[in-house]
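Let's practice the habit of predicting before peeking. Look at the sequence and jot down your guess about where helices and strands might fall. Then scroll down.
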Amino acid sequence: MSANLVTEEISNFLGRKEAEVICIRGKWGVGKTYAWTSHLESAHKKQAIALKRYSYVSLFGVNSLEELKFSIFENVITLSEGLRKADINSLDSFISSLVPWRKLTRILQNIPVVQNFAGADITTLISFMTIHDQIICIDDLERRGQKLDINDVLGMISYLREQRNCKIVLILNDEQLETESKLTFEKHLEKVIDISLTYEPTSVESVKIAISDSNEFSRHISERCIALNITNIRVLRRITHFGDAIMPLLFNYEKEVKMAALSSLVLFSWSRDQPDEAPPLEFLRSKTIDRYTFSKKEERQPKEIAWNTLLTSYGYSWTDDFDLALIKGVCDGYFDRELIQTAAQSANKRMLAAKADGSFESAWSLYHNSFDANQDAVLDGIFASFMKNAEYVSPTNLNGTISLFKDLGRLNQVSEMISHYISVYRDSRGFFDLAKNPFGEHIDVPEVRAAFAAQAARAVEKPDFSTVLLSIDRGWTDDQIQLLSTSPVEAYRNAFKTHSGKELHLMLSNTFQFDRIGGATEQMRKICDLGRSALKLIGEESPVNARRVKQYGVEISAKSFLGSSG
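Done guessing? Here is the structure:
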């Protein structure tokens, strides 16, 4: 039933004095309670409510009928007196108008039915007596406590209608009732309930309730939500929350990047919050540029085909690194600023390139958007675009492209594209280390992984010998000791010869410090030996250097200079 028809029924219900029960059923989060409450408030402003008292009770966690009865009294408001709420003082006043409170209590205690009411509280019994000629909303029937029997709830509703002249609204998601309770509810439905409504608002109606802003980006979110037929108001509000959170992080990027991010966020939020209706997040994560990600299980293929059909209609072709960063944010509940902006920057570059000279993604559209027998044209177009736009292609999209070309037999171009991609990013430090790439797990083509691993290994720079020798004056690592103890004598000689002043003295001090410390390892003693050998070579170069190295315990024989003019 549409929201308009439900509105009409609620308005008629509120305007009648007759005791009756109306049931409003609907899925989780579609706004059943909101619809009831908003129409009640509207009718109150118009003075179009026949009865003057109202009580709202949620059964969430309520475990006994006595608790429910007292909650009904406790939540009474008097509509005719500015929504004044009932309390113990009003209860005392009400009872006193009938008979003195203490006298009534003594009377009730002497009534056998009250005496035999195990665990009954006199206050609860008396307060429940005040409930008559009013509207009562009982919400969340499916979330009642385990000890509260649905038969008792329905029985009390029937009593309130027939004996206390009350109008009752029962709100529930009957799909969430356990099997036995659902059977009981359906069995007594016609006996207890006069009007049964199924609240099924359209996406347009739900979006109007959940998204109130009218700026350009909010309108885009609304359009995207309607495109996916999202009706759950709680989901819609979470989507707007994520939209508000992402926009400041994308302030400096192209409008198209912002719109694409919002469009993806709508899909990812829906997928996380309503996995029974939306394509699962895991499916979306694995939907790379080349594949439709069909399951190996034949029985699941129709569902996955339906997901792909939905995504194509929505305009979602594949998942790239920017999407993966957004998915992570949706799952975490917040966005990693650095991760989002790094991925958005790449997306922004691709967008600018597309505006200038066509994009790599547009070349793929020839593959995705028809069933024409045009394999060569498709692959030639993708190859040409890839070679021109490689700097805008993410590793995940490279992975998908190579997968497609392998499957369709273009092996020579596979090698050419990988080599070209490596050359484009060769100077990007850390780019090829998949272990440090937050989306590295999505790179699964062996040739791509092997190329990245090889490039990452070459990109690891060996530490500079002189830099290490200068840095160990206040401590050292095992790697530094390993490097210094295995370096050739010539490395020490070059370091001593190419430095002077404070740096030279620091190098020498660091080299021979291991002669001063107790417990020096064999590797540390080796460093001292290599240093002395290097000084010996330097000392043999000239008499003056022989004198210089002598202070470090290196003696140079005079015959080393026979025939020297020095």
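How did you do? The CA atoms of residues 348 and 443 lie 22 Å apart.
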